[in-house]
Amino acid sequence: MKVLLVDDEKHVRDAIRLLVNWQEHGIETILEAQDGESATEMITQHHPEIIMTDMMMPIMNGVKLLEWLQAYAPDSKTIVISGHDDFSLLRHTLKYGGTDYILKPVDPDQLNEALAKAIQAWQKDEELRQTNRELNIEMNQIKPMYWDKLLSNLIAEPSSYEQAAEPLEKELHLTRPLSNCRVAILSLDTMERSVKNKFSQNMDLLLFSLINICNEFLVNDKRGYAFRYWNSDNEIVLLLWKDQPGAEAFLAKINEGMRTALHTRVDFGIGSSHAFPADLTLSYQEARIALRQRNLKAKETWIHSTLKPAAAPQLTLTFSHYEERIQLAIRSGNIAQIEQAIQHWMDAVKQSDTITLEQLDHWWREYGVMKRRWIQQFFKGISEEKVKEMLLDEPASLIVPLDEHGILSLSVWQQELTRSIVHLSKLMLESQHKDKNVIFEIAEFLEKHYHEDVTLQDIASRFYLSREYISRKFKQEFEVNLSDYLGQIRMSKAKVLLRNPHLRISQVAEMVGYQDEKYFSKVFKKSEGMTPNEYRKSANSS
Q1: Is the dihedral of CA 511, 514, 518, 523 positive or negative?
Q2: Transmembrane stretches, by residue range (predicted)?
Q3: Are residues 121 and 7 in the same domain?
């Protein structure tokens, strides 16, 4: 805390320094001035909380200083120390906010008591100021959200206007009656990559910055208001109610402001003028259509309107027409073949004079459907959770492929599409290789454990696979059922053992996994066309 001593007599200032226990009062800095004029300079520079001043001084006296303090430093507390017992001076002190009037010679107790009272008064006021600051901060945080919600609701439900008319007129200067209004939408789709990267961890800050720039132009000119549209992710809407014919030129002016502040420009879609508030939704929809149908291949303007003549219609190009060729390339696992298939599609895209956001979105959705279908075909029996997991490498919504300047880049799109499809092909091949490996591991297990009572359920539990999956894959790989494969191993081992005349048939049966000799004999005869005993005689006689 700081105190300023103002008196034209130095010995008085020195005396006050000695009479007060500054440390006890929490005073860290003691400043001095010899008249009111020099005091104003010190106050402006150092902002002392407490000011002790004489009344009779040259250049600017205490009376004038008190008046100046009330106008320019109203938060500070003032104690007058005067050699004049004058009622008019006392009244002037009270009128201009002085907390005490002390007569010279100064009584130490009286001075310390007055200082304590002044500090307490300042602290009480400071608590109130702090509370007000916090409330203002909170209100400043809530206020934009309030307007965002109110105006978003106005577009979705124009009938809500009557309830909001008074605050709109008071705060946004949207005066009644207002017959028409235009809606514009600021698009982030084609913003330069460097700016998006800068705000990648805080999109809210980017939106806040863009809205502030818009409103610096709109609100100051009482032309309209920009806000964050609650019914769509990361969308900024501008209501334009003044000089509507010149709206496009004004949006271009805002864009120049963005170029200066953020070193980027943005695309605006703007609807035509419609009745306010009844047809706000219609103007908003026109602005969206203007953005979605703008030609991303040609950057002729940043301001897009449905009033401009549309490009000549083109033959519909669909991604699904190229599905079979791309699917065959995926199955091949050959990167060159995949690149060739994607190039075939891109060549067709490059023939289009116009590529709109609407088209890109349609192709994106087509690719999403096809990729899901491919996963389900390539990975038989895959769960829905696993399908979703494999689709996580793709963003949930369309990301427009742009170069570093925010212009549509077909080469960037081709690279991303190729990367995605090559990745899927690798996953498919890895899965097939893994499937093949595990089936051979099962076959190896049967070779080593043929003499045990091995069931399909035992194998399924051991290898963490379903019985159905093992049966299907085993048949595909070895062209026989697993049970028949196990039987072949047992019969082959049994024939070797039967050549040993010292082993009984029951022992051989048990050694190859059969506890019942009769059942073993039945299975052996069915497999080899003779009984185990007949085979033994035949083998040993040859």
Answers
A1: negative
A2: none
A3: yes
